[in-house]
Here is the input.
Amino acid sequence: MRTETAAFLQSYDNFLLVSHMSPDGDTLGSGLALLRALRRMGKAAHMVCPDRVPRAYLFLAGADEVKKPDDAPEFENIIFVDCGDLQRAGAAGRLFESAAHSLCIDHHSTNEGYCEINWIEGESASTGELVYLLLQDLDIPLDAETAACLYAAIATDTGNFAFAAVTSDTFRTAAALLDAGLDLADCHRRLFQTNSLTKTRLLRQTLQNMELFAEDRAALSSLTRDELKRFNATWDDCEGLIDPLRMIEGVEIACTLREMMSSEVRVSLRSKDYANVAAIAMRFGGGGHEKAAGCTLACPMQKAKDMLKRAMLEELRKCTK
Ligand code: 5GP
Ligand code: MN
Here is the structure.
């Protein structure tokens, strides 16, 4: 599908790129790198995202022109980037209907392929690495701005080049980004060494609300709507709150729940070694990767917690290691 993907970009002239809701570094960085590449090829290209671009990514070239789906300009062809299913595209999902042709570039193993052309590499650590290969296929030289976009994509989705899915090719790609003029120290500080004061306060609350169960192999925490309001939190302040839960020695599955509306709860799941959290997320209509997944539940917080706890216990029971 890699060849078909390059041909898709070459054959048509007008594209709309779509990032997934609650956008992360991979969906934004990959999308913005492609946006630059398409324009360099002389094509008309725009990008939309159902949610606002988090402050941390506004330094990436083109991030300031990402539009809401309702403000999407006229377009012919649509490209979903790092978006595991159409629901993840939120309000941008309906733009699919008006596209002449559609393409999906993704690395979520739960992606079933909802476009005309689907380039899905479930083994790849990030969509950013796929976009890098694509730019090579298209003979598009890397510039420092594109390198920063691809670094944001790859570094954030690989836990800073540390997850099991990272290969020697991931590092070769990183080397090429440095050769292209990437300002590594600056990007690293912006992406990994900067937390808002609000996020810092939410971290404290998350740890305070944390429960351990299953002989301390499972950790779960939640933030209610009132708590989020009290700290004046936006959704990007909540990114990464799950990390210290997973870091606890002996914890195999971590879960955080965030109350969005009175009856909607956003769930993040992580595992460390052997448990499959994508399987848990899929039971509730979500998806993701074996070690990082998520879903949204339409029920009150207490019920969501109970369901997740039961599912985590069952998953842990399945893998007696
Ligand atoms: P996070 O917990 O950071 O929101 O998401 C973890 C991973 O799971 C990401 O790769 C994300 O794209 C994926 N993911 C989160 N929520 C959903 C969902 O509702 N559906 C699908 N298909 N993937 C999700
Ligand atoms: Mn990704």
